[in-house]
Fold:
Amino acid sequence: MGETGPDHLNSAQAERLTSTLTATTSQLFHLVLETDIEILKALLHNPNLNNEHLLALLKRSDLSESIPKLIYQHRKQALSHALILALAKNPATPGSLVRTLLPNLRLFELVDLCFIPGAASDHRIAAEQAILQRLPTIPVGNKITLARRATSIIVGEILKEGDARTIEACLNSPRLKEAAVFQFLNGSEATATTISIVARHNRWQQRPNLRMAILKNRQTPAIWFTLWMPKLPLATLKQLLASQRLSQQQKSLIKTEITRRTRH
Structure:
């Protein structure tokens, strides 16, 4: 019978590691599928290893975090864009390394990172933060596309800027939260034009909290008071009248409606 003791096993492992270090280009494509972490570490030292092998390796979702770290260390000075993206997408890549890589990614690559199934929450949060940091310098056209594709947090931040050119795209986003619209309506960036865009929007115009936020904003055009006040309870009208935020013209409209009702 052949030897099966520890020495034999160690010898077999040593042979496998040696063969990994000298494997040909085609053999390396098979080795990137290995489950033995020592074999994977060894293949990173193979002189025949190229970017195609590394990209194939980084498609795996079962790697230990040591593998992405080693790839980065070995290729740090000559990382291709494809490798940077593959490292950022791999769930095994440590959060600290992901944050180092994100500045090198394009805007919509960052967006894609936010929606990778099974991605760690710290990866998504880091990608969101990287996008938010770029917002002030992103062209309007890209912001419109971003509003259609990005996460609720990013869409809410674009809305908060109050740019009339991007408002509609934000309001149409299925990810936009009512709380973000409410916050915008109560913020300093809301104007008569952008408030009216919200007030006309089919998805948001019937929300009671948003209607009240619109009616409590001194920038709100008179038309919305005229259209909505007849449907409001008298007690609500009196609460509106007591608001310190409204203009005299707005208060006059409310008083007229209250008088009309109390005469009947």
Remarks:
- Residues 1-6 have pLDDT under 50 and may be disordered.
- Residues 241 and 251 are 6 Å apart (CA to CA).
- The first helix runs from residue 6 to 21.
- The chain is about 65% helix and 0% strand.
